[in-house]
From TrEMBL, chain A:
Family annotation (PROSITE patterns): FAD_PCMH
Pfam family, one: FAD_binding_5
Protein name (record): FAD binding domain-containing protein
Superkingdom, taxonomy of origin: Bacteria
Gene3D superfamilies in the cross-refs: 3.30.465.10
Automatic annotation (TrEMBL), chain B:
Lineage: Bacteria, Bacillati, Actinomycetota, Actinomycetes, Kitasatosporales
Pfam families: Ald_Xan_dh_C, Fer2, Fer2_2, MoCoBD_1, MoCoBD_2
Protein family (similarity comment): Belongs to the xanthine dehydrogenase family.
Protein name: Molybdopterin-dependent oxidoreductase
SMART domains: Ald_Xan_dh_C
Keywords for this protein: Iron, Metal-binding, Molybdenum, Oxidoreductase
Keyword tRNA processing applies: no
2Fe-2S ferredoxin-type domain boundaries: 1-74
PROSITE patterns per record: 2FE2S_FER_1, 2FE2S_FER_2
Coiled coil: none
Length: 275, 905
């Protein structure tokens, strides 16, 4: 929709785009969420796509995803042999409520920074133990564990003027075995719960990432595969107010689904077999 | 900036925060539609350098230096893109508002996407078709047929506007540009109940571009009802254009008129309103209790009991239900709840007004320009000749546009300023201020003998009319349809329409019949289980049969012609279809499978006054002009009217030109609702066409000396014995003799017929998650003589899909203050392609209708049995009865577990 309070768009921001940040500013990436709802408090948009950050950079130590990488590019990324977690990228893109048309412009960083419980790029990057590189307005850089970035529904650790520059996924995470489960109230709808389990190749550990059903992503880690009761107890130990209530699910149902699907993931990873 | 749109270069700077959708429309590309303005519905899809994007969430400046393609640039009239042709031939549309987006999306599909339409089409919503027709269009399956002269009825001819719809040239309400037009935006109440103590408008008026601020002090102090009926007395006059008391969160507080939408929005933000917040009540039972907050102090005698917020009570008793229950072997009683649901027609409400030659002109998105005109005359004390109201193509209605909720404000602004003014609802305003379906709680008590014969039938209905009484009474009376379907000597019906501090309820497809159908058809299923009788068999034993009286609220003379056993045939067809498919396998071991049925029956026109006039004229161009007031919004009456006229005049639809829905150019028409567009207006068209035909034949007979019984219409001529006279000759002859081939005829919504149907579902329910999957869907419908098979099928499919949405996916959430939590299509989930199964549509060919060509309107009835058939199937699958809609997984799973632990224990 038209954002009628916007008086200026910075279409050629400087390489350190946060320098001139002031109240009423917003980062513009794909714009697919920003333009989807009223933004009466915003006056200026700063277009990050003009900085042409490299979208996907495989390195010796893993994969770097530029914050403005589109979902389309992520979905199309050809996975080299041995990166067993690669399948999770496509499944996470498909977890978007939005259509492939939105993927043409929506960005990975935009979804992360929107920080909705159902943000599938959050699920993906938390499950793959990513670090987020954040640039402050003064030029300083910090790294935050993906798990710690989202603090609640539509809330995160970004300071005013701070920008998500890139997401760094370590090589070892890309080589982990994965299993995932997702539930939606309508077919192909928005996630009610989205769970990912990962395991070291040949190992018997379990790292369970719980998202969408909770106001912020949770990681429940076991050095060795738990039994069903232990797994369930660890989910039951999640504080009641962390289970999310919105039109896409109730807290009780989400906890119930999480128990159910966590157990399915446990069994899948117990069963072993191909990664 | 500079961009190329459809091959043409435009150099123009968008506003900084403008989206591409409005920028393209400003450049004249009105094929780019607004359904949601939020990236959810896909109606605004265009290509940016060949890639499809939702233009409403694409910053306009991103088109700089790039190439944009809109529906208008995809193909041209006469040189369609193949996908445009496929959508015309399928036909892949009803109202046509989503069509441009559907075409611009599906024209980019790869083979992989075409093989996975649930995903490929998830960003495109259609509220009309139920998606089967869209799938056919994408896959190139066609149903449109050509009709031979005089044989149009019974053929699946295409809609008159089909070509314009697929090329993006069909003009909808807001698809026009008027120089100097001002824009209205409304400030809505944040409180569910409050008195407006003061409104400081100075800051708003200081905003550059703001012309006026309207508050309750600026409007005629004249009560009216926003509900549309010919007889305005069937609804209470309890509403002001703007009021100093607000009775629901979202109600208009003030309206700002400005040069731009942005200035009007800023004006609204700067209004300083002081409220005295009043206690509010949201539940109708609580609202009826002593001491509840009172909404209306109205002295309107229509209102039954203002102190208890009771708008209307209805008490009917036929026979003796106490004796009936005493004589019963089995009694079932249950309370069933149908919630508030929204029409979600893709075109939001909107109106444009301007003055021309001293007259008020209003172009609007309405189901009845004739009644909208009458209301404007009443509100603003205008003579009938001072107002014209008309509709271009309307983007869906479903009853939502049987309400005057935008026309009043644009008329106010234009009459005040003399300038053109417009008001276009946002999607959020549709949810928070337009009139959804009445939430109803019905307690049904049934008594039966062991053989299933009903002995007593008692219903108590508490209906939530919301803050105002529009449609509150008529929807309550309409509920009788769910009671008259079964023969029973003892019937009792008590109903209450109650004011609460919620959005005013209104008309919605199935109008007051759908909620009682859910209750009664669920209760019949439960009764069948208690009696150990097959639910279909229980119905067969109790449905009304031809020649029996249709008794609901009173036992007396009626105007209904009921000659054939269409409903019994529907029951048999659905029973056979479910038996034929009984070996369907569950999706997996954790799924429970079951089947359910439900039926409905209602009259083919409303009990209130319903009138329509049609004019048919043979012009000098040898084209028959059919002028009728009925609006086209996807219900397909335009096609049917053209077919009826072509059929009677012995010609093809190509020789018919339709003029419609314009109070300056057509006669009075109550409106396209209550299935009357076909039944009433169709009869007017039929009679006018017959009158013109007879006049032509008489003229030809006189001219040739051949007796008139030997003369027949023959497309562009008349065959008189062994001679043929061309229409051209006859028109010339007529002109010389002063004979005009023109006629006007009126039709009235009485006598009426009955239409009926039965829905069957087989569902699978996941025993852990509560997910419901529909494995099989079938509806048998008695639509009388079928005028257009493809359209009838499409209406049933669309009604079933909407019914599935209301039962399974749509959930209208209010917070504790009565504010809607999810007023958008992202979180109020109308069905997508992926949610809707194909429905097998089985048509019963009855001939007892008194409608045109013995046809029956059936676009409403089809929705009524959907929810109860689903609930009955879920019960069959799980052993658990769900008596409250919607049947969403989080409401299903908990009781499945409880049931399992009980049975395990």
């Amino acid at each position: 929709m038209d954002l009628n309070t916007i008086t200026e768009v910075v279409r050629r921001p400087s390489e350190r785009p946060g320098a001139g940040w002031h109240e009423g500013d917003a980062w513009l990436a794909g714009g697919t969420w920003l333009y989807s709802t009223e933004q009466p408090d915003l006056r200026r948009l700063i277009d990050l796509t003009a900085l042409h950050w490299e979208p996907l950079v495989p390195t010796d130590t893993g994969l770097e995803i530029g914050a403005t990488c589109t979902i389309r590019d992520l979905y199309a990324f050809p996975w080299p042999e041995g990166r067993s977690a690669g399948v999770l990228f496509r499944r996470s893109c498909e977890a978007f409520l939005s259509s492939f048309k939105v993927w043409n412009t929506a960005t990975v960083g935009g979804n992360v920074c929107l920080s909705l419980p159902a943000g599938p790029m959050i699920t993906l990057t938390v499950a793959l133990e990513a670090q987020y590189e954040l640039w402050a307005p003064d030029g300083s850089v910090r790294f935050v564990d993906a798990l710690d970035f989202v603090t609640g529904d539509h809330r995160n650790v970004l300071a005013p003027g701070e920008v998500l520059r890139r997401i760094v996924i370590p090589e070892h995470a890309l080589r982990r075995r994965t299993a995932h489960r997702r539930f939606t109230l309508t077919r192909l709808g928005r996630s009610t719960v989205f769970l990912v389990g990962t395991q070291r190749p040949g190992g018997d550990d379990l790292v369970l990432t719980v998202t969408a059903g909770t106001t912020r992503p949770l990681r429940i880690a076991f050095d060795s595969l738990p039994d069903a009761r232990t797994l369930r107890q660890s989910i039951d130990a999640v504080p009641a107010d962390v289970w999310f209530a919105d039109p896409n699910g109730t807290p009780d149902h989400r906890r119930h689904l999480t128990r159910h699907f966590a157990e399915e993931i446990r069994r899948e990873l117990t069963a072993g077999g191909p990664a | 900036m500079s961009c190329i749109v459809n091959g043409r270069e435009f150099g123009r700077e968008p506003a900084p925060g403008q989206c591409l959708r409005t920028f393209l429309r400003e450049l004249g590309h009105f094929g780019v539609k607004k359904g949601c303005d939020a990236g959810d519905c896909g109606a605004c899809t265009v290509w940016l350098d060949g890639a499809p994007v939702h233009s409403c969430i694409t910053p306009a400046f991103r088109a700089d230096g790039r190439e944009v393609t809109t529906i208008e640039g995809l193909g041209r009239p006469g040189a369609l893109h193949p996908v445009q042709r496929q959508f015309e031939d399928a036909p892949g549309f009803q109202c046509g508002f989503c069509t441009a987006g559907m075409i611009m999306t599906s024209a980019t599909f790869t083979e992989d996407q075409r093989a996975d339409l649930p995903r490929a089409l998830k960003g495109n919503l259609c509220r009309c078709t139920g998606y089967r027709a869209i799938e056919d269009a994408v896959k190139g399956v066609g149903a449109v047929e050509a009709a031979a002269p005089g044989k149009a009825v019974g053929a699946s001819v295409g809609a008159p506007a089909g070509h314009d719809v697929v090329t993006g040239h069909a003009e909808f309400t807001m698809d026009t540009r008027i120089d100097g037009m001002l824009h209205l935006k409304v400030l809505h109440s944040p409180h569910a109940h409050a008195r407006v103590l003061s409104i400081d408008r100075s800051a708003a008026l200081a905003v550059p571009g703001v012309h006026r601020v309207y508050t309750w002090e600026d409007v005629p102090r004249r009560r009216f009802t926003t509900a549309i009926h010919t007889d305005h007395l069937v609804d209470p006059d309890d509403t002001y254009v703007l009021d100093d008391t607000v009775r629901f969160a979202g109600q208009r507080v003030a309206a700002v008129l400005a040069d731009t939408v942005g200035a009007a929005e800023e004006g609204c933000r700067r209004l300083a309103v002081e409220y005295e917040v009043l206690p509010a009540v949201f539940d109708p039972e609580a609202a009826m209790a002593d001491g509840a907050p009172q909404l209306h102090g109205s002295d309107d005698p229509f209102v039954r009991d203002p102190a208890h917020n009771i708008l209307l009570e209805l008490h009917a008793h036929i026979g003796d239900v106490d004796a009936g229950f005493a004589a019963a072997d089995v009694i079932h009683e249950g309370t069933y709840f149908s919630p508030r649901v929204q029409h979600a027609h893709l075109e939001t409400h909107g109106s444009i007004a301007w003055m021309e030659d001293g007259r008020l002109n209003v172009r609007t998105s309405s189901q009845s320009p004739s009644i909208a005109k009458v209301k404007l005359e009443h509100l603003f004390a205008l003579r009938p000749d001072q107002v014209r109201v008309f509709c271009r193509r309307v983007g869906g209605g479903f009853g939502g546009k049987q309400e005057v909720i935008t026309e009043d404000l644009v008329a106010l602004a234009t009459l005040d300023t003399g300038r053109p003014a417009c008001l276009e609802f946002t999607r959020e305003e549709e949810f928070t201020t337009a009139s959804p379906r009445h939430p109803m709680t019905l307690t049904v008590k049934l008594g039966a003998k062991a053989d299933g014969t009903l002995t007593a039938f008692q219903v108590r209905n508490v209906s939530n009319t919301g803050a105002y009484g529009n449609h509150g009474g008529e929807t309550m009376y309409a509920g009788g349809a769910a009671v008259m379907i079964y023969r029973c000597p003892n019937k009792k019906f008590d109903a209450y329409s109650v004011y609460t501090n919620t959005v005013p309820s209104g008309a919605l497809r199935g109008y007051g019949m759908t909620q009682p159908a859910f209750a009664v058809e669920s209760a019949m299923d439960e009764l069948a289980r208690a009696l150990h009788i097959d639910p279909l068999e229980l119905r067969r034993r109790n449905i009304v049969r031809p020649a029996e009286p249709l008794v609901a609220l009173h036992d007396g003379p009626d105007d209904v012609v009921f000659g054939e056993d269409g409903l019994a045939t529907c029951l048999d067809l659905v029973g056979d279809a479910l038996a034929r498919t009984a070996d369907q396998v569950p999706p997996g071991p954790e799924w429970l499978v079951g089947a359910g049925v439900a039926s409905s029956l209602h009259e083919t026109a409303p009990p209130t006054e319903h009138l329509s006039e049609a004019w048919v004229t043979l012009g000098d161009d040898l084209i028959y002009e059919v002028a009728v007031g009925t609006v086209e919004f996807g219900e397909g009456t335009s096609t049917a009217h053209v077919q009826i006229a072509a059929n009677q005049l012995g010609t093809t639809p190509s020789r018919i030109r339709l003029v419609q829905s314009d109070t300056d150019r057509t006669g009075f028409d109550t409106g396209a609702f209550a299935s009357a567009g076909l039944f009433v207006a169709g009869n007017a068209v039929l009679r006018a066409a017959n009158a013109v035909r007879d006049r032509i034949l008489e003229c030809a007979a006189t001219h040739t000396g051949v007796h008139v019984v030997m003369c027949t219409m023959d497309d562009d001529g008349v065959v008189c014995g062994d001679r043929r006279v061309s229409l051209a000759e006859l028109v010339a002859l007529g002109r010389a003799r002063g004979i005009r081939f023109t006629a006007a005829r009126k039709a009235y919504g009485s006598p009426r017929s009955v239409t009926s149907n039965t829905q069957g579902f087989r569902v699978a329910v996941h025993r852990v998650t509560g997910e419901i999957r529909i494995l099989y869907s079938v509806q048998a419908a008695d639509a009388g003589v079928i005028i257009n098979p493809a359209q009838v099928r499409g209406q049933v499919e669309g009604g079933v899909a909407q019914g599935i949405g209301f039962a399974l996916t749509e959930n209208h959430h209010l917070d504790g203050s009565g504010v809607m939590v999810n007023p958008n299509l992202r979180n109020y989930r109308i069905p997508t392609y992926a949610d809707i199964p194909r429905t097998e549509v089985l048509l019963v060919g009855s001939a007892d209708s008194v409608g045109p060509m013995r046809a029956k309107g059936m676009a409403e009835c089809c929705i009524n049995p959907v929810a109860p058939a689903l609930a009955n199937a879920v019960h069959d699958a799980t052993g658990v009865r769900y008596r409250a809609l919607p049947l969403t997984p989080e409401r299903i799973y908990g009781r499945l577990l409880a049931e399992q632990s009980v049975s395990a224990g």
